[in-house]
Amino acid sequence: MKLNYYCSSPSCNKLNSIKVKSNNRYDLKQEIGLEINEPCKYCGSYTKRHINRLHASSNYVIILGGLLLAILITIILWDFGFISTLSGSIPIAIWMNQEKKASAFNKVLLDD
Ligand SMILES: [Zn+2]
Questions:
Q1: How buried is residue 56: exposed, middle or buried, by Cβ count under 10 Å (0-12/13-18/19+)?
Q2: What is the pTM of this model?
C-alpha cells in the first residue's frame, strides 16, 4: 500500500508518500507504530503524522503491470487469430481492486 501525506514544513507542503506492507491501519500500527516521522523528499525536514492522517492511493505500478500483461496477452492471442476481451478486463479489474483496497484503508480509522 502506498500512503500519502503532506510535508509539515509550511514553505514546502509537498506531497510525500511511504510504502507499507499493511492493507489497513490496524496492521499498520503493528508495522510502523502510531506515528510516522519521515524526512521530506523535497526539503528534508521531518514530518510527524498520526497514521490516521495518512491516505492510501492506488498503486499505479501494479496497474501499469496489469496493462503490460494485457498487451502481452493481446499479442499472444493475436497469433491465434482472435482478440480476447480478457486483455481489456485485466487492467480494469486490477485498477478496481487497487481503488477498493485504497478506499477500504481510508475508511477505517484507529480509535486511539
Ligand atoms: Zn518538504
A1: buried
A2: 0.79
Beta bridge partners of 36: 49
Distance 4 CA to ligand 1 centre (A): 13
Spacing, Cα 39 to ligand 1 middle (Å): 8
Question: How does pLDDT run across 60-90, given as a tens digit for each residue?
Answer: 888 999 999 988 888 888 877 666 677 778 8
User: Which residues are in the CB-under-5-Å shell of ion ligand 1?
Assistant: 7, 9, 12, 40, 42-43
CA 88 to ligand 1 centroid distance, Å: 39
Domain range list for the chain: 2-55, 60-107
Burial pattern 9-38, b for ≥16 Cβ within 10 A else e, equals eeebeeebeeebebeebeebbeebeeebeb
